[in-house]
Design brief:
With 312 residues, the protein is mainly alpha-helical. It has 14 helices and ten strands. Helices cover 47% and strands 12% of the residues. β5 and β6 form a beta hairpin. It binds zinc ion.
């Protein structure tokens, strides 16, 4: 039986078309992100992936954000050819003669549904292992988007707008169940987090600690200044990179940030730090900031944190 590590390995080395001019064709990783998105949203509940209108539509959306213009989009190719990667199984309709479907209609006609290895499907049911799988897919297949920040920001914005459109009514209601909204963030969140920590050079903005095993295994998080669950704000300037300790302390309001990006420390907590610099010693230190001012924490968000979270 394959382990999570096995699947991460397989998903990192999917068999994709490649040409020197066009680079790697991202059809398969995009289809997988779409399937994972549908699982996260509860729209795929059992291990049967149908060629549904939903799937076709969401694939096109993802393609327009993450695809390559050198390649023509389209679900048919990856839906059929993923069967060669060892974890994606096709159940054919009776009468299928073995020729490759060339259009979505042919795909629907020849294929009843696809299914994943049961084990992989189970990993995708679990929030934590699903997140790891998404992280790896994004890291391996779409990391070129990091060097092209405009793209990520645009993508971020597109998703943001899409969420507001689709969930506008939910967001308006105070007592709305936040889960429905949070489910939507599985794909977008890794991009937010990765972009933010990249912009801070993988360092904590508070203590400047950097521990890097690979760009996928770092000690810092991309933290939301105004909580995502409340504001649905994934704009880059609502983010700061913090190590695990200082992310927690920031969310608890043990410190905040002044308008000049100087650190403000709460007087109302106890602290012992016999071997490392204590938090209180960071009072008035200037926060580490990204190279470009456009990505600095937004003053309005910082002010919100001071007024609503900081224990002054
Ligand atoms: Zn730190």
């Amino acid at each position: 039986m394959r382990t999570l590590q096995d699947y991460l390995q397989i998903l990192s080395s999917l068999n994709v078309s490649y040409s020197k001019e066009k680079g790697k064709a991202p059809y398969k990783p995009i289809l997988l992100l779409v399937v994972i998105d549908l699982i996260a949203q509860g729209l795929i509940k059992e291990n049967k992936i149908l060629v549904s209108d939903n799937l076709i539509e969401i694939f096109d959306k993802y393609w327009s954000a993450l695809g390559k213009s050198a390649y023509k989009g389209g679900l048919t190719y990856p839906f059929f050819h993923l069967k060669n990667d060892g974890f994606w199984h096709l159940e054919f309709q009776r009468g299928f003669e073995g020729s490759r479907p060339r259009t979505v209609n042919q795909l629907k006609k020849y294929v009843q549904y696809a299914s994943l290895d049961d084990n992989l499907f189970n990993f995708l049911q679990n929030q934590f292992t699903r997140q790891t799988i998404v992280d790896v897919l994004v890291e391996v297949w779409f990391s070129d988007k990091y060097s092209n920040l405009e793209n990520i920001l645009q993508l971020d914005q597109d998703f943001q707008e899409q969420i507001h459109e689709e969930l506008g009514s939910v967001v308006e209601q105070d007592d709305a169940e936040p889960k429905a909204v949070l489910k939507k963030s599985y794909i977008r969140n890794p991009l937010f987090r990765k972009t933010v920590v990249f912009l801070y050079g993988y360092r904590c903005a508070f203590c400047e600690l950097k521990i890097l095993q690979s760009s996928n295994q770092v000690i810092v998080d991309g933290a939301h200044i105004k909580p995502f669950a409340k504001f649905f704000d994934d704009k880059i300037d609502n983010g700061i990179s913090f190590c695990k300790n200082h992310h927690w302390a920031f969310d608890q309001g043990l410190f905040s940030i002044g308008d000049e990006y100087k650190i403000l420390i709460s007087k109302r907590f106890q602290e012992e730090s016999p071997f490392a610099k204590s938090m209180k010693e960071f009072e008035d230190k200037k926060l580490l900031l990204p190279d470009y001012e456009a990505y600095f924490p937004r003053l309005e968000a910082v002010q919100w944190h001071r007024e609503n979270v900081f224990i002054s």
